[in-house]
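Final paragraph of the annual report: two paired records, presented back to back.
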Amino acid sequence: MPVAVLEGDPVYVGGISKTVTYKGYHFDIGGHRFFSKSKEVEDLWSELLPDDMLVRPRSSRILYRGKFFSYPLKAGEALVKLGIFETLRCVLSYGWARVRPVRNPRSCEDWVSNQFGRRLFSIFFKTYTEKVWGMDCKEISADWAAQRIKGLSLSTAVLAALFPKKKARTGGAVVKTLIDSFRYPRRGPGMMWEACAAKVWALGGTVAMGRRVTQCRYTPETAQWTVTTRDAAGGEQCATAAQLISSTPMRELVAMLGDQVSDEARHAAGELKYRDFITVVLMLKDRGVFADNWIYIHDPTVQVGRVQNFKSWSPEMVPDPAMTCYGLEYFCFEHTGLWNLTDEELQALARREIVQLGIARAEDIVDAHVVRQLKAYPVYDDAYAGHVETIRAELEAKFPTLHLVGRNGMHKYNNQDHSMMTAMLCAKNILAGERQFDLWGVNEDAEYHESGEHRAAAAGLRQVPRAVSAAG
């Protein structure tokens, strides 16, 4: 069947997985490691970029009080760098968490404290997490921590450090947080989606750039969608479709549906929040200060939350081997605080903070560039799950040919392989003419390539009985 992709960005495909270019430099928005427990996802990556995927070492560290700590934590290193008394406090705190855990933890603070102890939480999680979300950890849902740090605890990290040849496992599977290598397109993840767009064209589909969707109308009598878009010049176009797949933020989708949904659903959508994202890219002389993919900044005296080293992702991201390229990541809300600064003000801030952190010299910085990304992270506050369920239930009941996929489409803070699998299963459902797979059942650690009733259960998916059609 013919497919049309409506892309709001006038230049880049891939959404947050795009690769921005500037004067021969390539920037990844947020850092995207290509690793999946799904053979099906890995196979698709290999099909799209058969000759362009590098195998890169995984390296992330935490910068805390001027010292680098490996992440995940290494017991011996932490002992030396924290000092014996601080380490004892961490161990005692962890022991207390084992003996007296918070029952039914609801907040991120309680969940992480249960896994690592409250002392390690305050040292290695609190500052960075609150920078990311702009909220106190007590206000962030435990769902976020459980999804992003699933399977990892202090004991798991210590075992991985003591027995590196025997990867720490949970239920027989390698904990994703502990992987030591990953694949990566030689010029950034955007290569993957540019290749994907080329395939869409080659197979008879279309990819319309710079087309922002403003309205979606469903006609039950014909089971047809009419989608209205607006281009950069303000011109409107309409397209019709039998099936509508949405990766747009759930809040915006509900607004596009307008009076076709209830006041309750519109209210729930209006309550959903998103965290926006700014990367200030600095081009500077390479002095080999750090070789990590990124470092987490656990320092409340600066606003930067994480620093990417794009050259570490792939040397081809930087056009001159004598140079390197750092991406300083700032988390904010649209139209407030950092977002309202000019590009020049953001560049000046990044230059000051990178020098303050001691990982660059002011005289080595030769250029800078700012990239802004709206709605990078769906916010997991206390009320988000109820709002999502309200919207989901109504959309499924009223619109049998509407399919929500991906991070923002489902308001789920997924990794890219998880988001891709929701789309892949969605395509299978459409081709089968029935809802064989519940996309909301895809979980981050699923062996997605499994299929069939038994294998779907093993993958953590709920397979919908074949007698139930999409309209049911």
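The closing record of the year follows.
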Amino acid sequence: MLADRLEQWALAYIAEGELKGELKGELKGQLKGELKGRQEGEMLALQRLLSKRFGTLPADITRSISNASVETIERWFDMAIDAQQLSDIFKDD
């Protein structure tokens, strides 16, 4: 009887741990997906702004934007608002 009860508790404890692990993994995946989505949105917004202001973007600029962090893209976006030319934005990068 006691052995059966201990086995039930152990199985319940293991199941609870597995469930917590699954939920933690799902949350990590969701947060990663949200960050990736934010980066893509910021990237597209910057490319659109630059294209409207300066015309077709050179491939190296597009590549740099695609590989940049959200923080870098946001900094470039802010700079693009007042920039006179593309080199004003990407001179340090």
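Residues 2-54 form the longest helix (53 residues). This concludes the annual technical report; the extension proposal builds directly on these records.
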